[in-house]
Amino acid sequence: MRYRLKLTAYSDIGKIREKNEDMVFISSDLGFAAVADGMGGHSAGEVASNVAISSFVDTLNKINENRISLPKDFLPDLSKIERKMLMAADYANYTVYKMAQDNQMYRTMGTTLSCVLIDSDNAYIVHIGDTRVYLYRAGAFSQVTTDHSLAAEHVKRGILTKNQAEKSAVQNVLTRAMGIKKDVEFDILQFKIAPGDILFLCSDGVNKGLTDEEIKQFISKSGKTSITKICKAIVKKSNEKDGKDNVSAAMIQVLSAPGFLGDKWYKFKSMFF
């Protein structure tokens, strides 16, 4: 890994939900962060998000350790890392789907998923649903993933502005999610990173309370404040202003020196911590 990375994550159940169906995971060994937002009755959403990330990470580790091989005919035009991430995503989707089909209680479950993997000087993103990945670079803040939602489709067609879509009644209607079908399509993105970059991942609970500009204002303080404090402050402020959903975020800060320095905040049950 060419750069030193700082990773942090924070999650809150929100003001009215009985369970936290979000799942957040960070790994210094992998240079990896993920956010999943589960959905479904009973405990299904909580199960879906947990299983999606655990299966993804397990498959990624097995590929890295040569316990699983990438088939030669599996997306041969993509880079090896992109193929690894998409294979891990496919395994994770099938695991969630199979569990939903085998257990009546979980029949309606599904989850969004946004993952970032840093390798050398590149960021690789796998994404499905409306969890988001943003990039903060040199004072500019932009969403790099596309929401797979009906509201986003309305923005694309000019029916709604982005601000209107954030408050729209169809905001939570997803057009793509994991576990709903045996085969689903994931977005795969890749771009160069540079020292000073911050990748911000969040569930839609964050966006219900804060605008992109408000999130940017928090992250712009990264030169003076640790990303742990910033991540926690974003989640707390969003929860304070809305709080009708679970609120979760993860951050990766790219620094110039080699090695790893990690700091974390956790406020939720997880098999990973």
Note the topology.
Elements: E1 4-12, E2 22-27, E3 32-39, H1 44-64, H2 80-102, E4 110-111, E5 113-119, E6 122-128, E7 132-137, E8 140-143, H3 150-156, H4 162-166, E9 187-192, E10 198-202, H5 204-209, H6 212-219, H7 227-241, E11 247-255
Antiparallel strand pairs: 1-11, 2-3, 3-4, 3-5, 5-6, 6-9, 7-8, 7-10, 10-11
Pfam family, one: PP2C_2
Protein name: Protein serine/threonine phosphatase
GO molecular function, one term: protein serine/threonine phosphatase activity
Spatial separation of the terminal alpha carbons: 23 Å
Cα-based radius of gyration, to the nearest Å: 18 Å
Helical percent range?
25-40%
**What sequence of helices (H) and strands (E) makes up the elements?**
EEEHHEEEEEHHEEHHHE
The CATH topology assignment is Phosphatase 2c, domain 1
Percentage of residues in strands: 25-35%
- Regarding CATH, which class? Alpha Beta
Report mean pLDDT, rounded to a whole number: 91
Total number of distinct structural domains: 1
Unreliable runs: 260-273
Write out the CATH superfamily name.
Answer: PPM-type phosphatase domain
InterPro entries: PP2C (IPR015655), PPM-type-like_dom_sf (IPR036457), PPM-type_phosphatase-like_dom (IPR001932)
Domain PPM-type phosphatase: 6-254
Protein name: Protein serine/threonine phosphatase
GO molecular function, one term: protein serine/threonine phosphatase activity
